[in-house]
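Researcher: Let's do a round of design. I'm pasting the structure tokens now; please hold your answer until I've finished.
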């Protein structure tokens, strides 16, 4: 009976957290535009934080409830899902053209954050102090990203953000309405979406921990697979939608920004929440090694072709499935 209830919680939590995160990003982006905040800052901070909000909430709740393995596993799993599943699925829709400067700057910064989290998780060194350090590094990284953004032609950045604002949000119409009524609507949307993310995350944590206990599955494995996939749904849906419209830069930026926030922001939250020692450190070590290998593999794909081609996207999806299966062997 407990397993059935847990599965029901997971069945409700997955779609709820995906839809809520989508609403949060849409509302926050439109509200920031109405308030005159730079589109560069919106893209780097609001969208990156919004798509990583599910991971942060799930990780914090998991750690507070003593399920550190679940939180760490879902961060590593989400990063791998972003690099392999999200980029791969998007490339299957349309080849992803990636600028050399993106590989040298944004990809290197995101990869460095992933490596740091792998080292801390693999050595069981996530603590209150390291949590503070990770959040400080996140702040510094965002400043760097914003500075790099100023080197991007304003017309290009404005066009990307204009496209994002004008896409019909779930349950809403296209475009951000001006005036007090429009601002109030987007404030309400953003607030309700944040609450929904918290509720959905609670469902996921409750369901996942119950399934792990009843079926004898490691919390770390469950976090790496099922929970990580669920919290990565916003990135996956956004990437496929953007690929259909040919906005490949937005896809790559979203993935790299999400991994940056996952590693530094969510990693910092895990430390501040009082991470207990990992019950099953082997999963963190194995999944961390898989993430490091994938970072090198994706970098090679980007450097040896004009980006990520369709057949390379298929390879990435297969790699993701192979990594997930390998954890259960």
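Researcher: That's everything. Go ahead.
Model: Designed sequence:
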């Amino acid at each position: 009976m407990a397993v059935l209830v847990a599965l029901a919680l997971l069945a409700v939590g997955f779609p709820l957290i995906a839809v809520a995160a989508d609403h949060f990003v849409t509302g926050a982006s439109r509200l920031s535009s109405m308030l005159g905040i730079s589109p560069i800052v919106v893209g780097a901070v609001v969208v990156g934080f919004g798509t990583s909000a599910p991971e942060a909430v799930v990780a914090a709740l998991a750690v507070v409830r003593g399920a550190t393995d679940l939180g760490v596993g879902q961060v590593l799993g989400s990063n791998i899902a972003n690099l392999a599943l999200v980029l791969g699925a998007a490339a299957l829709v349309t080849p992803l053209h990636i600028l050399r400067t993106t590989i040298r700057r944004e990809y290197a910064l995101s990869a460095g954050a992933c490596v740091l989290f792998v080292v801390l998780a693999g050595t069981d060194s996530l603590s209150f102090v390291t949590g503070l350090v990770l959040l400080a590094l996140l702040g510094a990284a965002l400043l760097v990203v914003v500075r790099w953004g100023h080197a991007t032609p304003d017309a290009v950045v404005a066009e990307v953000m204009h496209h994002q604002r004008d896409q019909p949000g779930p349950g809403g119409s296209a475009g951000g309405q001006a005036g007090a009524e429009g601002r109030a609507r987007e404030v309400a949307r953003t607030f309700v979406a944040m609450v929904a993310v918290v509720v959905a995350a609670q469902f996921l944590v409750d369901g996942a921990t119950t399934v792990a206990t009843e079926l004898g599955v490691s919390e770390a494995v469950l976090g790496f697979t099922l929970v990580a996939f669920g919290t990565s749904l916003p990135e996956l849906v956004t990437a496929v939608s953007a690929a259909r419209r040919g906005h490949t830069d937005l896809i790559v930026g979203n993935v790299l920004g999400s991994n940056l926030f996952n590693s530094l922001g969510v990693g910092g939250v895990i430390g501040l929440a009082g991470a207990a020692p990992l019950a099953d450190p082997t999963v963190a070590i194995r999944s961390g090694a898989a993430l490091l290998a994938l970072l090198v593999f994706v970098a090679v794909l980007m450097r040896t072709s004009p980006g990520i081609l369709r057949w390379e996207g298929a390879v990435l999806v297969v790699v993701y499935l192979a990594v997930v299966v390998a954890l259960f062997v």
